[in-house]
Design a protein that fits this description.
Number of helices: 18
Oligomer: single chain
Bound molecules: adenosine-5'-triphosphate
Helix content: 55-70%
Shape: elongated
Radius of gyration: 35 Å
Strand order of the largest sheet: 8-11-12-6-13-14
Structural class: alpha/beta
Number of strands: 14
CATH architecture of the largest domain: Up-down Bundle
Number of domains: 2
Distance between the termini: 101 Å
CATH class of the largest domain: Mainly Alpha
Length: 597
Amino acid sequence: MSADWNIQLAASFIWLGKAFLITLVCLVPVLWLASRFTRWGRQFRQLAWPYLRPGRGWKPLLTIALMLLLALFSVRMSVLFSFWYNGFYSALQDLNIGTFWFLLGVFSVLATIHVALALLTYYIGQAFEIRWRSWLNDWLTQDWLAGDAYYRTQFLDVVVDNPDQRIERDIAAFVNGSRTLFFGAVSALVSLVEFTEILWGLSGPLTIAGVDIPRAMILIVYLYVIIATLIAFKLGHPLIRLNFMNEKLSANFRYALMRLREYAENVAFYQGGAVENRTLWSRFSALIANLWALVFRTLKFDGFNLAVTQAAVVFPFIVQAPRFFSGAIKLGDVIQTSQAFGQVQDSLSFFRTSYDAFAQYRATLDRLTGFLDANTQARALPAIAIETRANTLDVAGLRVQRPDGKVLLDGLTFAMQPGQTLLIKGPSGSGKTTLLRALAGLWPHAEGQVRRPTGTQALFLSQRPYLPLGSLRDALAYPATASAADDSRINTVLHQVSLGHLSARLDDVTDWSRILSIGEQQRLAFARVLFNRPQLAFLDEATSATDEGLEHALYSLLRTELPDCMLVSIGHRSTLDAFHAVCLQLDGQGAWHLNPS
Ligand SMILES: Nc1ncnc2c1ncn2[C@@H]1O[C@H](COP(=O)(O)OP(=O)(O)OP(=O)(O)O)[C@@H](O)[C@H]1O
């Protein structure tokens, strides 16, 4: 078979147009069926459609169409190269120097196009992945934050592990896997059709045990690869679970390392290195045990795949040898046969060799859709509906339970007006912090009515001070944002809480929670209240790390600076009584009493 190189340009464009249309016509129903009737197809649609749907813009779909065109072009180039090899080797066999030089000229054109095509494919593919990844990152992060899902997923029956990994790694793996597997499959199928056609033209009959088999090459390659694929699927199946476990165990190990870094000082004080080492080692061992299982399974899987590929190298030569030596076909035909056989073999084998990649891809789909589903379930958990009402805290018939059903507090009813103060007391574990969680709308095991200011008009200072990543100015203003224009007000409140020495470091970006002592962090939290001037502040043991003198100074400051702010405090010290008019006493069994403090 030889090609007329003078008409190849026009012929290639016509081929490209036809192949593009045929591929689209075949692809659309296949994708639709997969997204309806397969689990991975449904998961893919759940993750991909929000980005790809034309209602949001045509750019992603048009980029996919362009990538499809490039993939088809690349198949066309392989076909042209295969004809080039045929002509070239036949010219060598015929000692035809004119054709030899002509074909070298053709090669330089083909090679230039090939290089340009490869670079363009790379660039467009990467640009597509980066844009899609950014969009997904934004979507999943917002979904995680929406409705306090990042906090409330802990109350689900099945808690999703390592959301950080799902956002950071799985999105990238999903985007890359979707592109490479999709275009890999499309290229494989189109190559299969093209090179089967070439092989059809090149193959002759084969006589086995007296029986003539027409077009034997085609029959051999298809039978060979289909049987090999079935065996490979069986060998590769356990890889799905092993890959899933690998991701999970790696993330668990990473989390243990991160935690050690986070609590470095506590561990160092306890001299708990040996215990930590055991924990780290046990998590690492689980990871390694799974890795060994993965290695042995991959040895079997890859060993089989490599053997199948190697054995296929010699087939076409053996089958064509009689026709070549009898002079029925030329050297170029033999070379092209071997290439076409290799291409058909590769294309058919795509589904076998990609089984591993597909297994990982499915694990990624599971992790990402599991994450989104958990967020949705967390948002659907019950919570007290908070009604916004300025300058009042009105609680009626509030019932708070532990997750195991034990009632901590029943029928709580009280109301507060601007400037009023309430101190919540009770034994440890009686539900004081949980009551605040319920009043914040975070606790799922609560019912009743709450009316209060919302948004930045209500501030909750939790037992453990929290400082966000960023500058000291950001930490002080949290959750509001402050700019340099607010510096004079920030400096005033810093001096008021005896942190004036920090006023020169407002722009310093560092991990402030490691630098400031707990007492200083608690003072910073008071500065936050003074800066944000809420109508209502909840202080959960907010002065537990300060001495009584400083506690007195901080509470006095709140009363004088924010006389209208309603204060709800939790605390064990009797020194707090003086700053609160009413005391709510809990017994942790459901009963409660309101007394003058
Ligand atoms: N996420 C949770 N899952 C299960 N039980 C919880 C959870 N959070 C709190 N509890 C339980 O609810 C009960 C009340 O806890 P809470 O933190 O409200 O007590 P507290 O009165 O604030 O205690 P302390 O004075 O020691 O801070 C405790 O028995 C605690 O173990």
